[in-house]
Amino acid sequence: MYTVTCFNPIAKCGLERLPAEYNITEDVKEAQAILVRSASMHEMELPEGLLAVARAGAGVNNIPLDRCADQGIVVFNTPGANANGVKELTIAAMLLAARDITGGAAWVKENRGDENIGKTVEKAKKAFAGTEIAGKKLGVIGLGAIGAKVANAAVGLGMDVYGYDPYLSVQSAWAIDSRVTCVKTPEEIYQCCDYITVHVPLMDSTKGMLNQEAFSQMKDGAVILNMARDLLVNDDDMEQALKSGKIRKYVTDFPNAKTANMEGVLAIPHLGASTEESEDNCAVMACDELTDYLENGNIVNSVNYPSCSMGKKKGPARVAVFARGAENVIGQVSDILSQAGVGISAIAGNSRGDLSYTLADVDQKISDSCEEALKKIGGVLKVRVIQ
Prior knowledge:
The chain is an alpha/beta fold. Helix content is 32%, strand content 20%. It has helices at residues 12-15, 65-70, 83-98, 101-110, 117-124, 145-156, 170-175, 186-192, 212-216, 235-244, 276-296, 329-339, 368-375, and strands at 3-6, 23-24, 33-36, 52-55, 74-76, 137-141, 160-164, 181-182, 195-198, 222-226, 247-252, 265-267, 317-324, 344-352, 355-362, 380-386. The strands form 3 sheets. Strands 8-7-6-9-10-11-12 form a 7-stranded parallel β-sheet, sandwiched between helices. A 5-stranded parallel β-sheet has the order 2-1-3-4-5. Helix 10 links the parallel strand 10 and strand 11. Helix 3 (83-98) crosses helix 6 (145-156). The protein is elongated, with a radius of gyration of 25 Å. The relative contact order is 0.12.
């Protein structure tokens, strides 16, 4: 029925969610859907028949979102599927920053030839002593799927937790432990917390948000944890903050040429979602999103088009209309279908910025002339008929 290509290895448990009649191909020109993890798509020519791209993960900076939107290609991601894996790495990062575990382990390896290492270690271990995290203040910036889990786990470890998220959803709010103190500004976190962890998407408004201005407001010796995105932190400002002692430790899951060689940085090789469970969860969610869209036209967890779902396709056909800057698309679609003698059993639409998406279940197959009339609506980018 549909042809799917995988740009990266996708967990078997995810691919098994695709209907048996779907074909997996290595030829992207034949693909109606793409499953991807980290492979860059920016330089590729998008196939004419491509309908959707599903990223088995949260970040989509490797996908040309605007170009896909202009061609009516829906891009999905899998928010929350890797949340527990990233949460656990964040807690581990905090413990690694609090106690020099890596330094101690390196000492043991360097001295493994010492026959009396059991005794020698008693004198050497004081160089690797640290602090406990219980009773310390943790600031969590971003209380989405990951941030909420981090906050709750830290409460369970006896920390005094503060959270900031101006876009906190009702669902996330319900998931947060009542002992987490929600503040109205990030400055409140900067000023009081011993540890600060950031879990926000990379956007123009968040790029370089942890910079000299932010560091100047923090407690001396604060620890910064970045398991979200490399560019959320200004590396030059971080280097100066570490040298001055303003920041005691920076733990990042995104090493680059600068941070990998920076004193005071513990760089982890992007392991946040690198667990079997996370990869399985992301693959399953991505394949489920693709299947629902290909067969029913439903959009859930898209990063370039609005959400719109009408459940399983009912009746002979379902019509999907993609538009940019169009007004009253639902009304115009209804009028054209009515003029063609097509009955509508259900219709729904939603918008995201200047992009809109409309779904309609109809009582008969759509003729070529009716489809062409829908395409002529001002601002329409694409019309898809599922029948």
